[in-house]
Hints:
CATH class of the largest domain: Alpha Beta
Structural class: alpha/beta
Distance between the termini: 53 Å
Shape: globular
CATH superfamily of the largest domain: Periplasmic binding protein-like II
Mean pLDDT: 91
Strand content: 15-25%
Number of helices: 20
Oligomer: single chain
Strand order of the largest sheet: 9-10-11-2-12-17-13-16-14-15
Amino acid sequence: MTAISRRSILTGTAATMGAAALATPSLGQGADPRPVVTVAVQRIATSNTLDIINEASNVGTRHFNLYKEMLIDTDWIGDLSLRPGLAESYRRIDGRTMEFKLRPGVKFHNGDTLTAEDVAYSFGERMFGTAAEQAAQPGAPRDPRWAPVKVRAGARNAYPAIETIEIVDAHTIRFVNKVPDLTLEGRISMRTGAIINARAARAAATYAEFWTRPVGTGPYMVADYKTEQTLTLRAFDEYWGGRPPIRELRFVEVPELTSRINGLKAGEFDFICDVTPDQIETIEAEKRFDVRGGIITNIRVLEFDVHHAQLRDPRVRRALSIAIDRKAIVDSIWGGRTTVPKGLQFEFFGQMYLPEWTGPAYDPAEARRLLAAAGYKGEVIPYKLVKDYYTNQVATAQIMVEMWKQVGLNVDLQIVENWGAVQKKDETRAILDDSVSAFFNDPVSYVPTNYGANGGLATNGYWSNAEAFKAVEVIQSSVDPAARRAAHLRLLEIIERDDPATMVLNQTANFTAARRDTKWVPAKSFVMDFRSRNFSRG
């Protein structure tokens, strides 16, 4: 159970308790010279909420940091280093304890001042429930405002060992872990740790009431959210990082790329997301526009449900992997603008990067041999996907189906309406599209969430492997760099070769088209930054 203690009484919060309404910009819209900017996206959210733990998606990652922030920030448009965020400083007291000094005078969108109480709420009650809930027996009633299973699971994976959250004073807070953790700074920097206003959250009648209009500290506040249509953000002029450069920022859901491109040319949109490489030259032929972006900290993968009749034998899953010529896909539909990584890992991991691991190589002859040894006789293997959630998704899938056919694999490509249809547990769940993002420079940023005992594949009934789970535990808990590297290598061997849970395709390249007169740098992530440091026009 995560305990919260207070060593001193918080001061300065009572004066803000009457500020119930969202703060408004200091200038009326008619007098405000800042632009209204519209961003066309293929999807705003998959969960119909703005709770990034529940949402936990690439599309939700685009905008979440515009209205809520973390204690530790990441330089997404620079070198990916960690830097102070809502905490102006932080330090290690010992291997288990970190102390954070909050920036003074940071305002929430409802006018409240950020205090350690908000941080304690965001990392404690909001994620794990009240003390009474945490102490209750399994199956006991939970507060319906904060009960989504995905939120609790996401919190457990991100912060499995936080023992105590200690409020020292109004602007000082300490996190005490049960065990030493080399990656605690990175964990705190993850999107899971976004800080929200405790008073507003506690006052909300329902989960949806708060999470369709969350109260955070970001440069923009949520003005309106219409699920599967629009998200409208308004400048928050009391933002601690300086007055936002955009008066109103609108995210509009436009599923088809052709419609996004036409809207850009017609002046309806200022930015359009998820541009495919084959459209870059066409867009840039008009001198008013250019396309920006490149490789980001995300890898496209396929995941396997090992309980499907045709995938129980790991040799069939391995054959599916080595029958794919990944470089041919990168060179053709990606125009060489991305790369095939050395397995499920990122180069910016530093000493945890394993250059000796290359992942399964293209080998159609070996794929045929494995299929014969497994006794596979051409039975149908379903492959379900949501159309073009990922860039080049359908085109990639169609090419792979043909490559699989060449070695005798009978994969049935099925395009479905939503993620619920993809994930529905029945006899048609076999291969599904996915991606894996690194949110800081260590495998801990995604390994437990995806491949641990409490990760998505295990808890959703896709795959389970006791040895892999032990390797994940070592990666999470060991303070011995050599032991962590060895566990990381063994995990990759298991999930990509011995008992395949996943199949790496390529590192993701993310491209955004914009007006050429706009000064804006894309992130090495799906994050979009529209702070004053990263947006101007003319």
